[in-house]
């Protein structure tokens, strides 16, 4: 038998928690489903249980999540943790796993607050043991205080790269080198956007202080590196790169790669929602109205970085806006006041995103790190290289879905999460057409692996 709710929210990060808190305060029956054991999402992972010492290492922006989490837990919204949502239909029916059993939940409105995921970073050797995403390393730090014992090399671009280095330094982690793929020209070229984003001075100062901390610790810092390649036979032994016309090699057994995050769009592709390719962020962004309502979809909303990368503060504001829109849907008498109630949050969102054009321009991942050379593996699950994908195009393949029939590319356990963007860009580049014309994988349920036993355990006999 299905369980019914006024609102189902997928994701208990900043956007999901604030939306749930606001809707529960308006006496709506709210159910929040999240894979983690505690609320917080990725940005505030483990915030309800972290020690004071670890919170100090992670910094004040992390600690600020405690208040939001406490308000959420006291709101009366039902929090189903350890829940893996593997299907969502347009009529707002969700199927999820918890403790090995499948459950069904139907709702009058659904808010997708699934956040972001790390962008693939396909360079030679990125599949070797000893290579991780910087975001994954931060998950270990937040979740269990786990840090590397040996010197680590951090490579790539974007604010998270500096943040992780800053946190590692506070935790006493030895950093062998920082290899920044962004250039001084990138930063200078983005300067006009920085002037427009001066209202975000606090964030600018915070970023500069992190870079200064790296400098004070005399960590080798290479800006504008090219041609990254990770070396090793059975695991990482070194990383090699070019800098100012010279080739460098640094011995290490751990390389952390990062070139930004992108919206987690698995649910919106599953729903056949309309998406547009963003040249500014080099990723797909679902089309929504200003409140996060998916176009041509009844009662399904986005909130947070799933609408486009903007950060934790913007995620909170987007959660507020989505909550207002959902309340207006569930209580039509409120519709007349929605615009006036939304106005302060619309203004706040504009301020939250003031720095985003600068960050997008300054830290846009380099083409060579998004569209790899022939020998580099693109699909980790099925070990398909960029060269193979180019060969498929020469044989008539016009898009990612056709590529599946040539090679099972995108059909492994990750279901295209780690290769989808790269496959789209490689095909678009080979055909010399826009990414929008190439498209993306046709995502199907289940979104996460489900066993036959788990399906058989369903509480809905019609499943």
Query: Could you name the CATH class of the largest domain?
Result: Alpha Beta
Which regions contain 5 or more consecutive residues with pLDDT less than 50? none
Distance between the termini: 10 Å
CATH-assigned homologous superfamily of the largest domain: FAD/NAD(P)-binding domain
Rg of Cα set: 22 Å
Strand content: 15-25%
Largest sheet data: 7 strands, mixed
- CATH fold field value of the largest domain: FAD/NAD(P)-binding domain
Number of β-strand runs = 21
Mean pLDDT: 95
Q: Into how many domains do the coordinates divide?
A: 3
SS content category: alpha/beta
**Helix content percent band:** 25-40%
DSSP helical segment count: 19
Shape: globular
* CATH architectural arrangement of the largest domain: 3-Layer(bba) Sandwich
Protein name: (2Fe-2S)-binding protein
GO molecular function: oxidoreductase activity
Keywords: Oxidoreductase
Domain FAD/NAD(P)-binding: 6-318
Can you give a write-up of this model?
With 463 residues, the chain is an alpha/beta fold. It folds into three domains: 3-117 and 262-357, FAD/NAD(P)-binding domain; 120-259, FAD/NAD(P)-binding domain (3-Layer(bba) Sandwich); 371-438, Arc Repressor Mutant, subunit A, CATH 1.10.10.1100. 38% of the residues lie in helices and 22% in strands. It contains 19 helices and 21 strands. Strands 1, 2, 3, 4, 5, 6 and 19 form a seven-stranded mixed β-sheet that branches. β1, α1 (14-25) and β2 (30-34) form a beta-alpha-beta unit. The mean pLDDT is 95. Residues 6-318 form the FAD/NAD(P)-binding domain. Keywords: Oxidoreductase. GO terms for molecular function: oxidoreductase activity. Residues 378-456 form the SoxA A3 domain.
């Amino acid at each position: 038998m299905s369980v019914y709710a006024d609102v189902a929210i997928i994701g208990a990060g900043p956007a999901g928690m604030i939306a749930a808190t606001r809707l529960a305060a308006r006496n709506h029956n709210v159910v929040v489903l999240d894979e983690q054991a505690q609320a917080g999402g990725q940005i505030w992972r483990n915030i309800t249980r972290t020690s004071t010492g670890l919170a100090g290492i992670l910094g004040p922006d992390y600690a600020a999540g405690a208040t939001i989490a406490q308000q959420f837990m006291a709101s009366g919204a039902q929090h189903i943790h350890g829940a893996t949502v593997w299907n969502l239909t347009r009529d707002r029916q969700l199927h999820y796993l918890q403790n090995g059993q499948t459950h069904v939940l139907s709702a009058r409105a659904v808010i997708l607050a699934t956040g972001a995921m790390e962008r693939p970073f396909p360079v030679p050797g990125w599949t070797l043991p000893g290579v991780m995403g910087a975001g994954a390393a931060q998950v270990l730090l937040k979740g269990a205080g786990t840090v590397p014992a040996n010197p680590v090399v951090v490579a790539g671009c974007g604010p998270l790269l500096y943040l992780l280095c800053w946190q590692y330094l506070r935790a006493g982690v030895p950093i062998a080198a920082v290899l920044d793929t962004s250039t001084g020209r990138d930063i200078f070229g983005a300067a006009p956007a920085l002037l427009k984003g001066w209202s975000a001075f606090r964030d600018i100062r915070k970023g500069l202080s992190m870079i200064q901390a790296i400098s004070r610790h005399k960590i080798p810092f290479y800006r504008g590196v090219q041609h990254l390649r990770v070396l090793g036979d059975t695991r990482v032994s070194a990383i090699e790169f070019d800098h100012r016309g010279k080739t460098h090699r640094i011995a290490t057994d751990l390389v952390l790669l990062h070139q930004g995050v992108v919206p987690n769009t698995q649910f919106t592709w599953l729903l056949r929602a309309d998406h547009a390719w963003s040249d500014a962020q080099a990723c797909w962004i679902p089309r929504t109205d200003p409140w996060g309502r998916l176009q041509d979809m009844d009662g399904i909303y986005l909130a947070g970085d799933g609408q486009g990368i903007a950060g934790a503060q913007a995620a909170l504001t987007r959660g507020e806006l989505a909550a207002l829109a959902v309340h207006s849907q569930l209580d039509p008498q409120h519709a007349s006041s929605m615009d006036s109630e939304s106005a302060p949050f619309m203004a706040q969102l504009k301020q939250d995103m003031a720095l985003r054009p600068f960050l997008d321009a300054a830290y846009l991942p380099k083409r060579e790190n998004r569209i790899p050379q022939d020998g580099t593996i693109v699909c980790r699950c099925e070990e398909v290289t960029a060269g193979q994908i180019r060969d498929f195009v020469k044989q008539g393949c016009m898009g990612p879905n056709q590529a599946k029939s040539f090679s099972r590319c995108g059909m492994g356990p990750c279901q295209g999460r780690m290769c989808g963007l790269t496959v789209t860009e490689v095909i678009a580049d080979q055909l010399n057409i826009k990414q929008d014309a190439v498209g993306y994988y046709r995502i199907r349920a289940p979104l996460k692996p489900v066993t036959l036993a788990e399906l058989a355990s369903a509480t809905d006999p019609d499943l």
